[in-house]
Amino acid sequence: MTPSTTFAGQTVALFGLGGSGLATALSLKAGGARVIACDDNPARMEAAREQGIETGDLRQAEWNDVAALVLAPGVPLTHPAPHWTVERAKAAGVPVVGDIELFCRERAATGPDAPFVAITGTNGKSTTTALIAHVLSAAGRDVQMGGNIGTAILSLEPPSPDRVHVIELSSFQIDLTPSLAPTIGVLLNLTPDHLDRHGDMPHYAAIKERLVTGAAHAVVGIDDEWCRAIAARRAGPLTRVHVGEAGEGPGILARNGIVIDGRREPAEPVADLAGIGSLRGAHNWQNAAIAYAVATQLGVTSEAFAAALATFPGLPHRMEEVGRRGAVLFINDSKATNADSTEKALSAFQRIHWILGGKPKEGGIASLAPYFPRVAHAYLIGAATEDFAATLDGQVPFSRCGTLAAAVAEAAAAAEGDIAGEPVVLLSPACASYDQFRSFEDRGDQFRDLVRALPGLKPPGA
Asked: How far, in Å, CA of 38 to CA of 244, rounded?
């Protein structure tokens, strides 16, 4: 745990007692603050009390005595309307912050030279965060990984000059962190997302930009217009990363699965992603190039980086290789809950038996039509079945399977008899999971279990 000592002797209001909220309350208490915690869920309030956290109705709080309101990132700060606690805090002149801000204040007070890598972007944040942490660990560094990737930042060990914090940040978390000033700030890419919470794309992009504005060194992917403009405005040290042909200025290039250091003269290939199943696809070329830029900035050699790539296990439910049966490869991409995410998976394979469906998102799968020639057969499940059938009709052969179990059985049998190319059974649903599953993790876990139960399956690497 990282105790939050910068509020010692003061009263802090906290709203939102999920995983990060409870960790924050315990951190504040350990640091000597009085915490008054609140949540709409009575069970969470009870769980906090069981751990010695004071709870109360913040509607009745004496806000003039409160030093700060710590808000969970899932609670609206501005759009579509500020949460009532935000309104109360602002009326009393109380700053509204998040758990990342508490970490930043603690780092500034106790270890300003402690290495802190902060990663954001619309897509690829978690894979890049995990890859950076993996490379640094393989190089012998003491690494603490957390934030939006799943472990609350204040649950991690405290900042220290010989310890690197590698932290994924969502736009919601950045919005609650006014003093964000990482050692290295990473911005991967920007496409429209969470606009219901940020109002419009310029506001969303401006929030993301704050992460690199305050960084001692910025690493920015420049393959979209928003990030190119942010890189152009960057005043301090900057490494540009681009996929494809060389972009503006020297930087790191990822071309055809090769990471190339364009800062050297002449430009030098430093890592080959061919054969690394956890890093398939052009989107992962960018993730690897970003990781290279960060790792070398922190003193990792290109040789050590390349060696670490080969042992990167990837993340569950993100292009996860479950196993092979004969020539058939099974891939769990349950995290792909919209068409934009599924596009990355479809672009990575040539002969696909595609399992898709669930609770549909706006826009459906029409945007994926350029990849339909790669699909040997589609297996439809869940509530989106008829909508997706209408889109695929006349372009891709499909079956209405209803359930994931039926889809896996039919896809496995069909792919086994598919002699055209190298068949892949791909779960990449392009849908939310809530019509049939508790979460995308539950959906991916069930897919993994179904595949592993197939006779003759060999695990990854076997």
From this structure: 49
Domain identity same for 91 and 109 = no
- Length reported for the chain: 462
Of 47, 62, 97, which residue is a domain's last?
A: 97
User: Catalytic residues, which ones?
Assistant: 125, 148, 194
Q: Which residues are annotated as a binding site?
A: 121-127
Residue 360's Cα: distance from chain center in Å?
A: 21
Closest CA to 331 of 451, 419, 437: 451
* 263 domain-assigned: yes
Query: What's 39's domain CATH number?
Result: 3.40.50.720
Residue with tokens 């993100």: 318
* Contact yes or no for 286/294 (Cβ under 8 A): no
pTM of the model: 0.90
* Encoded amino acid at 430, one letter: A
Asked if the model's pLDDT at residue 245 lies above 70, the reply is: no
Rounded to a whole number of angstroms, the distance between the first and last alpha carbons of the chain is 39
Whether residue 68 sits in one domain with residue 40: yes
Hunting for tokens 């002699």 — which residue is that?
Answer: 419
Angle subtended by helix axes 42-50 and 19-30, to nearest 10: 30
* Same domain, residue pair 154 and 11: no
3-state helix, strand and coil shares in percent for the chain, rounded to the nearest 5: 40, 25, 40
Q: What is the pLDDT of residue 421?
A: 82
**169 and 68 part of one domain:** no
Domain carrying residue 156: 101-309
**Contact between residue 259 and residue 273 where contact means Cβ atoms under 8 Å apart:** yes
Amino acid identity of residue 176, one-letter, is L
Measure the CA–CA gap between 31 and 52, rounded to whole angstroms: 14
90 confidence band (pLDDT: 50, 70, 90): very high
CATH of residue 113's domain is: 3.40.1190.10
Residue numbers belonging to the annotated binding site for ATP = 121-127
Q: Which of 97, 121, 149 is the last residue of a domain?
A: 97
Q: Is the peptide bond before 460 cis (omega within 30 degrees of 0)?
A: no
253 and 133 both lie in a single domain: yes
- Note whether 215 and 107 are same-domain residues: yes
Query: Cα(78)–Cα(417) distance, rounded to whole angstroms?
Result: 54
Dump pLDDT digits (tens) for 404-434.
999 999 999 999 999 888 999 999 999 999 9
Could you tell me if 333 and 426 are in contact, meaning their C-beta atoms sit under 8 angstroms apart? yes
What is the Cα 46 distance to its own chain's centre? 30
pLDDT tens digits, 177-212: 999 999 999 999 998 666 666 668 898 999 999 999
